[in-house]
Amino acid sequence: MSAHRFHPTILRAYDIRGIFEDTLTTDDAFAIGLSFIGIQTQRGLGNEVAVGRDGRLSSPVLAAALIDGLVAGGAQVSDIGCGPTPMLYFAAHELASGGAIQVTGSHNPPTHNGFKMVMGGLSFFGADIEELGRVSAAGPDRNDDGGVITRDIEEAYVDRLAAGAVATGLSVIWDCGNGASGPATEKLVAHLDGTHKVLFPEIDGTFPNHHPNPVDPETLELLRAEVAAAGADLGIGFDGDGDRIGIIDGKGRQVPGDLLTAFLAKDVSARHPGAPILLDVKSSEAALRLVESAGADAQIWKTGHSHMKKRMKELEAPLAGEMSGHIFIADNYLGFDDAIYAAARVITQMVKGGQSITEFMDSLPEQHATPELRIDCPDTVKFDAMEKIRAHVLSGHDAKDVNSIDGVRVRSGDGWWLIRASNTEAALVARAEAAGRAALDRLLGDIETTLAAAGLDWKRP
Predict the structure, then answer these.
(1) By residue range, what is the domain housing residue 413?
(2) Could you read off the pLDDT of 416-443 as tens digits, one per residue?
(3) What is the distance between the alpha carbons of residues 369 and 436, in angstroms, rounded to a whole number?
(4) Is there a single domain that holds both residue 377 and residue 415?
């Protein structure tokens, strides 16, 4: 018996994440492996587990401890080494593994790290993570039948990314941000025609050139400058583990994830007319209307890659997307969030569909919407704060104008606004969209007042 208790902040809603050697240690990684395989075998899903890791400085030691824990619990581990998270998802599918775990801190600071998990082909999250905590605290059994082998899956993964992809006549800048997507991106680009330049493909866990978060406008400044200098058709940026995409169009505009999903919906819905296409709760009304105009059934769902993938499977949706740049494609692909594959689909659609992402952005009416607004809020406080925010909102608004599926999304005569708790950072996230600038400022005032009612001091931008 090996009882172990985790720091209370690291067991998140859809992954496990903490600060290395502070809230997250190699002992935690071992316990995660031991408990995970115990749950997997108890569920009758065999003992095979695929393990991958990103390029953070702490990932090799955490992955080694994780594998030790899995093996101690009787797992047969396929270690696929360093690469993007979607390559781990691909490996789990190709190897028919009952489970899969990626060691990754995603887009968080270099001192952070964590684990994204899959079991039985589904995201391991929410109640699963709570169960893992209970199993670990009780002390899972050990088993002498474990072992580990190294597998190289990258070539097969890149071949799948490249299958059917075309970039004829396009000039594309790719920014890997020294994250885990670099080597696979370089190999994909070697398969493509057109003109390509890959920035920062070398994996470096210190992220010396910029932080790999393709939603933060500041992290895209280098990409924007390269697109302008080359007169490129678009720029594509990835986060630290390659499951989120950011795009700069030929005019230097950042394409939000909801609008990128709407662009892809034009192609996907032609093959799946009337099918549900999901957008997360942070997505704009403009994106919802565009998806509907493409002939799809546009639906809002909870933010979070695990929530979205689960809902996609329930509805058999061919496409889903989040403001944060997680794009999920089940149309001729495997339905998980793969930023490199999403990039290949975007450039292929541009060539085959005849409309560039720049022309698509040009066709849209002027938007009066904020980006994601981050409000610092400690992990130990943010969910209590959201309860106060929800109570305040419901006391002052008609219930039919409030969507509380994930945080609170409030409609008014001016437009809509949202506040929700981030499940990956010590923060709340807000967003608003209105018909004009004055109306948008009034909505931001509503957010400011609502946060103040919950004891949070935030000033509108």
Answers:
(1) 368-453
(2) 999 999 877 789 999 999 989 999 999 9
(3) 9
(4) yes
Residue 101 within a domain: yes
Same domain, 62 and 179: no
401 and 447 inside one domain? yes
The CA distance from 131 to 190, in Å, is 44
Give 319's strand partners.
277, 329
8 Å CB contact between 168 and 193: yes
Whether 258 maps to a domain, the answer reads yes
From 58, 106, 283, 324, active-site residue: 106
| Domain count across the chain | 3
Amino acid at 386: M
Residues 282 and 401 in one domain: no
| Structure token pair of residue 298 | 């546009």
Confidence of residue 372 (pLDDT cuts 50, 70, 90): confident
If pLDDT is split at 50, 70 and 90, which confidence band does 460 have? Answer: confident
Which DSSP string do the residues of 304-359 spell out, in sequence order?
SHHHHHHHHHHHT-SEEE-TTS-EEE-TTS-SSB-HHHHHHHHHHHHHHHS--HHH
Question: β-pairing, 319-321 with 408-412?
Answer: unpaired
Answer yes or no: is 287 within a domain. yes
Total-model pTM: 0.93
Tokens 């509503």 sit at which residue? 446
Do residues 342 and 217 both lie within one domain? yes
Q: Are 346 and 194 a contacting pair, CB within 8 Å? A: no
Residues linked to residue 53 through DSSP beta bridges, in sequence order: 82, 103
How far apart CA 456 and CA 419 sit, in angstroms, is 12
Do 423 and 281 contact (CB within 8 A), yes or no?
no
Cβ(10)–Cβ(21) under 8 Å?
A: no
Give, to the nearest 10 degrees, the angle between helix 85-95 and helix 154-162.
100
The string of pLDDT tens digits covering residues 156-174 is 999 999 999 999 999 999 9
- For the stretch 60-107, pLDDT in tens is 999 999 999 999 999 999 999 999 999 999 999 999 999 999 999 988
pLDDT tens-digit map of 99-139: 999 999 988 889 999 999 999 999 999 999 999 999 999 99
Whether 106 is catalytic is: yes
- Could you tell me if 254 and 377 lie in one domain? no
